[in-house]
């Protein structure tokens, strides 16, 4: 039977707007049970992963740590959980990442201490909880109960709540709490504190990487639709290269995306696609991060690329930009598109002399999808409006 103070706290957490991902190893499953014991957990828990095998935790961390139950391990787990939450939240709510690494009583005597480290990551704050229990004074379930309560207290605090639960600790078992600033990676990118964020399909983020010898499909993806994925697959087959999607958080015509808009677009990328977030709306600047690569573009994008209005109406600047792209070892694969009620392709473009070798056509037989993001967005908005009316 769940204690009344736990039940009350779970209800309050489910009523808060925050959503979170929980990563735990060694203990913490009781916290997940408590959260799922009441209706509403689907509004709160985005994902929870029990990394019980040591190799599972090693896979997450990327290397085997000297010790598993440390503040560093808990923080790395929480950071991954936070990044994963950004990937899953669709920008609809503030997110939290929770990491717990613990070692508690088992069916054999342990040489080391019975201890836990819990880390909770919010958009601007990292809070660490450290607790060492007296060995031999409790059964495993009792120690699991305490660790799970620490997790619940951390989640509650991040939701702006007062936990109001008693850990039933001895005087020799102080719970140590430390807080430090944390900077959301999307905020850091928008603030120009980093140049790129490389996101793999599970949501894990790597910063300021240069990617070499790939095919790059850049766009606003508002929304992402079947045409994008079909183009990516056709280009991958044609070029025999990995396709990486690129989302510039700054648009040459529309300015910067908001944090929530970026999260909404992140949620669209599935099926093991890799995504790179950059601050670069222009291909001459993108080329720095995608050396020796091929940019996959539709006719309309290629047309804009070659328009001098994006280069201060200066044709010399346009030629300089193309030279920069060539010097980075990059070129373009152009897919045909409906443009002004006509199917247009590479042969319809006016390419400056000396640069035609940088442009290759993706044959119409390999790819043709006439749906645009604008049309997909209109259909989505119409569907949303009908759903809202029916509601």
Detailed description of the structure:
This protein has helices at 4-15, 29-36, 54-61, 71-89, 140-158, 185-190, 226-239, 259-266, 283-286, 299-305, 315-327, 373-390; strands spanning 19-25, 45-50, 95-103, 114-121, 125-133, 176-181, 196-199, 205-207, 215-218, 243-248, 250-251, 255-256, 274-278, 294-298, 331-335, 337-339, 342-344, 359-362. It is elongated, with a radius of gyration of 25 Å. Helix 1 packs parallel to helix 5 (140-158). The protein is an alpha/beta fold. Helix content is 35%, strand content 23%.
Q: How are the secondary structure elements laid out?
A:
Layout: H1 4-15, E1 19-25, H2 29-36, E2 45-50, H3 54-61, H4 71-89, E3 95-103, E4 114-121, E5 125-133, H5 140-158, E6 176-181, H6 185-190, E7 196-199, E8 205-207, E9 215-218, H7 226-239, E10 243-248, E11 250-251, E12 255-256, H8 259-266, E13 274-278, H9 283-286, E14 294-298, H10 299-305, H11 315-327, E15 331-335, E16 337-339, E17 342-344, E18 359-362, H12 373-390
Parallel strand pairs: 1-2, 1-3, 9-10, 9-14, 10-13, 14-15, 15-18
Antiparallel strand pairs: 3-4, 4-5, 5-6, 7-8, 7-13, 11-12, 16-17
Helix pairs in contact: 1-5, 2-5
């Amino acid at each position: 039977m769940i204690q009344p103070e736990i039940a009350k706290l779970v209800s309050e957490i489910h009523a808060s707007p925050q959503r979170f991902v929980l990563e735990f190893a060694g203990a913490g499953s009781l916290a997940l049970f408590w959260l799922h014991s009441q209706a509403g957990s689907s509004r709160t828990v985005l994902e929870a992963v029990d990394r019980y095998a040591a190799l599972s935790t090693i896979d997450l961390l990327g290397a085997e740590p000297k010790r598993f139950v440390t503040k560093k391990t808990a923080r790395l787990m929480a950071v991954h959980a936070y990044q994963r939450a950004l990937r899953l939240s669709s920008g609809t709510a503030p997110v939290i990442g929770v990491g717990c690494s613990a070692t508690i009583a088992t069916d054999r005597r342990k040489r080391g201490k019975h201890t836990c480290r819990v880390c909770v990551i919010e958009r601007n704050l990292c809070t660490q909880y450290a607790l060492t229990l007296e060995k031999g004074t409790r059964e495993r379930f009792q120690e699991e109960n305490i660790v799970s309560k620490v997790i619940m207290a951390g989640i509650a605090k991040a939701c702006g709540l007062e936990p109001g639960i008693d850990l039933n600790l001895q005087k020799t078992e102080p719970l140590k709490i430390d807080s430090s600033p944390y900077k959301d990676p999307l905020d850091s990118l928008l603030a120009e504190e980093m140049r790129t964020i490389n996101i793999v399909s599970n949501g894990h983020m790597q910063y300021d990487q240069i990617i070499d010898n790939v095919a790059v499909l850049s766009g606003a993806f508002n929304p992402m639709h079947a045409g994008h994925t079909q183009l990516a697959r056709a280009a991958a087959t044609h070029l025999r290269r990995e396709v990486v999607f690129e989302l510039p958080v700054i648009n040459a015509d529309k300015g910067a995306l908001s944090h929530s808009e970026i999260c909404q677009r992140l949620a669209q990328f599935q099926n093991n696609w890799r995504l790179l977030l950059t601050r670069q709306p222009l291909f001459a600047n993108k080329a720095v991060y995608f050396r020796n690569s091929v940019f996959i573009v539709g006719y309309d994008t290629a047309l804009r690329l070659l328009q001098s209005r994006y280069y201060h109406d200066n044709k010399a600047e346009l030629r300089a930009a193309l030279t920069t792209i060539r010097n980075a070892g990059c070129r373009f694969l152009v897919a045909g598109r409906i443009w002004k009620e006509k199917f247009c392709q590479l042969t319809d473009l006016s390419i400056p002399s000396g640069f035609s070798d940088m442009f290759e056509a993706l044959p119409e037989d390999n790819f043709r999808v006439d749906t645009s993001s604008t049309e997909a967005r209109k259909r989505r908005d119409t569907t949303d409006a009908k759903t809202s009316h029916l509601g």
